[in-house]
Amino acid sequence: MTRQTLSVQDAMDHPRMGPWRWAAVALCFLVALLDGFDTQSIAFIGTAIAAEFKLSATDMTWVITASTIGMAVGAMTLGTFGDRIGRKRTILVALALFGAFSLAGAFAATAWQVVALRFLIGLGMGGATPALLALTAEFSPRRRRGFLMTLVLLGLPGGAMIGGLVAAAWLPAVGWRGIFLIGGALPVVLLAAVIALLPESQAFLVAKGAPEGDRRARTLIARTTGQAVPDATVLMVEDAGEKRGSVAALLSPAYRTATVAVWAIYLFNWIAWYLLLLWMPTALKGLGLDAGTAALGTVTVNGAFILFAVPLSAVLPRVNARTLLLGMFGAGILIALGLGAAGTNFGLVFTLMGLAGFGVGGQQLALNYLIANAYPTQLRATATGWGIGIGRLGSIVGSALGGLLLTGLGPSGYFASLAVPLVVAALATLLVRSARAERPEGELETAPAAA
User: Fold this and answer.
1) For the segment 379-421, what is each residue's pLDDT rounded down to a tens digit?
2) Residues near 340 by Cβ (< 8 Å), separated by ≥ 6?
3) Which of 172, 192, 209, 392 sits at 20 to 30 Å (Cα–Cα) from 276?
4) Number of domains in the chain
5) Residue 437 falls within a domain, yes or no?
């Protein structure tokens, strides 16, 4: 007699959102907060580090970009670990790296020690995000997946808002070393909570093919959904034969077009986003604002990103992702040109910066949602990791270009230059002929993202 089979994601599609699911989503959100906190705080403490070690603007580029280089390496390496050793273990490794090297950064004696430690901190930050998104997707009912993934992603701008405000307000009192101590203590505390409360992905446990993993997956499914899986039912994952954690699989004929196109969009979108995030405070100071008021620019762009994310999460499953992305890039290009023309009309500048939360940063929500629906469980963390890793390469370029653009073009020219990578990203979006974030309700997530 043929035994009955059940897809793990079908089992997890039960609409019940009990305490275990909410706890998993909340912990993923808190880890994402730390990433955003560190990303934005360095934009404010960089000047204090430069003053202590007497660094030039060129030297400061290394301090600012070191962590983004680490993030790129971490996303592509630890992201693959998420498909090999598990989502939870990868998050634990990432938090340990982040916390330990942040604490060590408070005691750096030379500028190059700061650069090296910032790189190692970036390894942890970059490695956590792919596993966070994969785990959230696999713990979510299909109807709520876009919303819950967006909720976790909101930790990035939320942490950036906190990081900017904390660094601007507390830097005079605790110095840049104190900000490093804060950034190191938080992940250590969160590490204990993750060990105690964060479950492993049921899909990952079943995909391993071990009896113990299958038993744990059944227990977790019953705990999170309130419905037990009968012993006679065989648990399955989609595309069970797919090679796990394989970068080569991402470039196989089934996924190649989507993979290359998505990588290009990530690359140039993140160039623009990090150009804006990391050098905006400096540009606003160049226009005549004091440090405290310049910090409000960080709050404005990240706060607007959060506000736009809520309706975007509702719209994404229902619209053509390619059309939406093209519209967002078009808006971003106009916003960049408007910022370049606004000069010292700060009312207009702050309004456009708020809109940039949609037109420059909002594309990341659509892209991550697209990846979660384009790849099977065995490739999801790897696909997310490499997409974000390529994006991190863009963040390195954006971080490095900011100082050169501000020096050569001034604040207005710097703002207008944001349009260039957005144009390239829009052109790359045109190559995605049939990538769809909007699966019909109930359709399995096994179809490739491109023709």
Assistant:
1) 666 777 777 778 878 888 887 888 788 888 999 999 999 999 9
2) 412, 413, 415, 416, 417, 419
3) 172
4) 1
5) no
